[in-house]
């Protein structure tokens, strides 16, 4: 996509900034989009405590996930949604309609395949009379939510299999599928209700970290050579930072496991946060307000680059980008064009404002 070059007034070694590929799974390109999305959510999320709930897909279904990624994503979303909304609508557990923001993640700390949904659930909702009512520090019983989630997801998997929508891997027979299916009723499923966020800032920090950008933060990459890639990760079991070394092919394979299929929405809204529940949402917003006045988790302004040698501000000196001729097909042969200095730099800036390429 081309590169922009920055240098300080003393012309020390410059800074190269590659132009955005705009892919939602690219961590660097998603930085600005991430913060813009958070600012939009501040207009939507209520200024109330939120619970954090995590629904995990059993690892026995991982082979099926690889052959039915879009289908299983729909299944885990629907099972998570119906579990929360059904239980909270029950008078024994509040009798409320909450607001739910849900994000699908497919990775573990070591880039292994680990599909799960992160849910932000309002600590309160609308009762049957349409009035706002807050919940206390308790959301739902752990045993109940695990059993209901298991039943919902198993029912959806069975329905997809019997309708022919579920594609079995080459090494899995129908008998093997039913054996795996029945065995999952004998184990306890992983559903965690984490700590409650008591204020809007905590919600924003959570969203800023997880909403966009894929599984790999460039700061995790410690050493890269032809023999392998060393990356750090936080072990959630003992809370210690550890490292692992992967062959380049294995690293690429693991990253590509977590690129979502085209057209799959990995962020969704339910309850009174759903786009179709505008009237209910207005009632809740009038009662509680939104996070619009909460300051962002980090600066969303334009990036300033500083020289690593003298610390001075680095200015744009030149840019180069692919020239693709007519049209915008990425399959056309690319020839790098380069412009530098003075009026040419200004021409670059005007060109880039009109083009689809922007600097990270």
From TrEMBL:
InterPro entries xref list: Transposase_32 (IPR007069), Zn_Tnp (IPR026889)
Domain of life: Bacteria
Residue span, Transposase IS801/IS1294 domain: 99-276
Domain Transposase zinc-binding per the UniProt entry, residue ranges: 1-57
GO biological process terms, semicolon-separated: DNA transposition
PANTHER family associated with the record: ISSOD25 TRANSPOSASE TNPA_ISSOD25, TRANSPOSASE
The protein's name in its UniProt record: Transposase zinc-binding domain-containing protein
């Amino acid at each position: 996509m081309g590169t922009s070059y920055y240098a300080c007034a003393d012309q020390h070694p410059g800074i190269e900034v590659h132009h955005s590929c705009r892919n939602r799974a690219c961590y660097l390109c998603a930085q600005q989009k991430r913060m813009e999305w958070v600012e939009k959510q501040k207009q939507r999320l209520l200024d109330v405590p939120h619970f954090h709930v995590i629904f995990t897909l059993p690892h026995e279904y991982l082979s099926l996930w690889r052959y039915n990624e879009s289908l299983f994503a729909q299944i885990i979303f629907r099972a998570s949604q119906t579990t929360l909304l059904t239980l909270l609508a029950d008078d024994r557990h509040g009798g409320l309609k909450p607001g739910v923001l849900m994000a699908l993640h497919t990775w573990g700390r070591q880039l292994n395949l680990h599909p799960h949904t992160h849910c932000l659930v309002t600590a309160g909702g609308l009762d049957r009379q349409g009035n706002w009512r807050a919940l206390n520090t308790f959301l739902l019983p752990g045993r109940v939510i695990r059993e209901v989630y298991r039943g919902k997801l198993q029912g959806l998997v069975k329905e997809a299999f019997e309708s022919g929508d579920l594609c079995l891997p080459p090494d899995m027979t129908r008998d093997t599928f039913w054996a795996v299916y029945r065995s999952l009723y004998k184990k306890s499923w992983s559903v965690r209700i984490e700590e409650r966020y008591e204020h809007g800032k905590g919600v924003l920090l959570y969203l800023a970290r997880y909403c966009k950008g894929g599984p790999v933060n460039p700061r995790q990459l410690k050493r890269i050579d032809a023999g392998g890639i060393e990356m750090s990760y936080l072990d959630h079991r003992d809370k210690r930072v550890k490292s692992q070394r992967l062959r380049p092919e294995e690293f690429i394979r693991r990253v590509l496991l977590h690129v979502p299929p085209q057209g799959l929405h990995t962020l969704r809204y339910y309850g009174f946060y759903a786009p179709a529940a505008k009237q209910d949402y207005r009632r809740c917003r009038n009662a509680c307000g939104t996070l619009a006045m909460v300051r962002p988790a980090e600066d969303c302004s334009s990036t300033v680059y500083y020289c690593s040698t003298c610390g001075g501000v680095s200015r744009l000196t030149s840019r180069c980008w692919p020239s693709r001729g007519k049209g915008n097909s990425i399959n056309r042969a690319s020839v790098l064009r380069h412009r530098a200095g003075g009026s040419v730099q200004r021409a670059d800036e005007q060109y880039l404002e009109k083009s689809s390429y922007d600097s990270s």
